[in-house]
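Issue: ligand-bound run for flavin mononucleotide - logging full I/O for the record.

Environment: standard queue, default settings, no custom constraints.

Inputs:
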Amino acid sequence: MINSIKDLNDFSASFEPDLSVKIGSLTMTNPVGVASGILGYGEEYKELVQIDELGALYTKTVTLEPREGNPAPRLVETPMGLINSIGLANPGLECFLREKLPLLRSHCCAIIVNIAGSTEDEYAMLVDRIEEELTLSGPMSKTGVDAYEINISCPNVLKGGMTFGIDPIIVERLTGSLRRRTARPLIAKLSPNVTDITEIARAAEEGGADAISCINTVVGMVIDTDRMKPAIAKGLGGLSGPAIRPIGVAATYRVSHAVSIPVIGVGGITRAADAIQYLLAGAQAVQIGTALFSNPLAPQEILNGITEWMKKHGVLRVHDINSMLK
Ligand SMILES: Cc1cc2nc3c(=O)[nH]c(=O)nc-3n(C[C@H](O)[C@H](O)[C@H](O)COP(=O)(O)O)c2cc1C
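Outputs:
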């Protein structure tokens, strides 16, 4: 029985909170992951980031064919944020399977493979080919693909990406089609650039998604007034970083009340208090993106901060934080 601050301090010192998180059939050791597009396929920043200490690594988006991405400049800083228009540059599925998957298998954290297609068929072909490869490789302790994150929210491509993620009918049909192709957990990554994000989240749940990642970047633009040109070659880009955190927290709050599957909060998390805002808003786990560019130690610091906060408040399990918002 905790009757005083002293009792609480004694209790806090004497227990280790349970940080594990369940997403469908997948159990992550802790709620802190690194967002798609930040660490490539685990090879970028590997000297700086303790990948094996993460709850999950979300890979750079994989597409069927290799993509060069958009022309440079494709990154510009803004106050409290970053605008990117990378355009899903990636080496394509076959190179991913040949060269990146073996490296991903060497990590003990959960590996979530982020996929995108320009048509619904392309998403299906990606999942079919990855599942085929995993079957051909035979039983192994680590397949390198613990779940899929379906990117239906990229604002920087002409076909697919966000154009799918703004239509609930397509989202339900696409998720349903992928559901029939794999038993691995499916996480739908949603765009905030919609009128009602809860409608899209419900469509993904209806289609059979196991979780929702909330949110991808917010469409933004910076204009260079000397050159009288957009700072990004493509004109518009996706805003990330602390500037979008309140948008991400609000989206997480709304979506977690609209669906019964777990929500993974992402957008502008730079320190533990930011991650805890997402957990209080209803997220079961979080992803860190832009913060790693200025502080590669952010995931570890954030995990330590969450643990300390749980001890301070006597919270036994990370998912209990969801019900603590007053
Ligand atoms: C440089 C960069 C590249 C990104 N690439 C991808 C990507 O390939 N696929 C994807 O789903 N999201 C991508 N994102 C979006 C992030 O995963 C994340 O949803 C977004 O940046 C918000 O989180 P943050 O504010 O912590 O960065 C990218 C973000 C950045 C900054």
